[in-house]
Amino acid sequence: MKKILAIGALSLALLACGTAVGFAAYDRPQDEAAVQGLAVEAAVLRQGSHGDEVREVQRRLKMWGYYSGSVDGVFGTATRKAVVAFQKKNGLTADGIVGKATYKALGMTDSYNVLQGNSGSGSGSNYTSSDLYLLAKAIYAEGRGESYTGQVAIGAVIMNRVKSPSFPNTVAGVIYQKGAFTAVTDGQINLEPNETAYNAARDAMNGWDPTYGCLYYYNPAVATSSWIFDRKTVTVIGKHVFAI
Prior knowledge:
This protein is mostly helical.
C-alpha cells in the first residue's frame, strides 16, 4: 500500500542495465558494481528523461501548484522549471535535477532508497523531533476517531502543504496558519498524542500519502465554509473528503 510507483526505479534501471551489459555476462563483482552504478544513474531524473517516475514527479508538482503542463512522463523544459521552483521552496540546490535530496522532499521513498543503495524503507525525513511531535498532535486532534490510513492522510495533507508554494514551508507554519485547522482554533491541538498518532506522523513524514497529493480535507457533515465544497475531490477516507 505504501508503494508509490507501479514500477520502481530500481526495476526500470535494472531493465535498462540488462540491455546495456547483458544479463548473461553478469557474473563477476566488477559487473555487479557496474550494474549498480547504472541503476543509480538511471534513477536520477533530468531534462530528457522519460518514463513512469517522471510522470509521478509531474503529478506531485502539478498537485502542489508548481507545474501546469501535461503529466506525460517526458522531462522537458516546463518540468525542469517546476522542479527548480520546488527545490527553491524547499531549500534544495536549484539545479532542476531530481536526485536523492529532491526525491526525499517529494516523498518518493522508493526512488530515494535506490539512490541510498538499499531496498528497505528509510526515513527520508529532514524534519526534527519537534516537527514530529507537532504533526502527531495535529493528527490526534483532527483525526483520532479515524482509521490508521485516515490519520496518515491528515498528516500527508499537512506535509503536502509544507511542500506547496501556496502555504508556509514549515510544519508549525502550516498547522498554526490562521483558520487552517479547527483543532487549533478550539484548543484540541494541546491534547497529548497517542502512539498511533506518532506512527501516522512518521509514515506521513516518510512519504506515505493516501491522498495522492491533496492539500485540503473536510468532514462534509460538519463543514461550514462553503468554498471547501468547490474543491476537486480526489478520495474519501472515513469521514473525510480529501481534495485539491
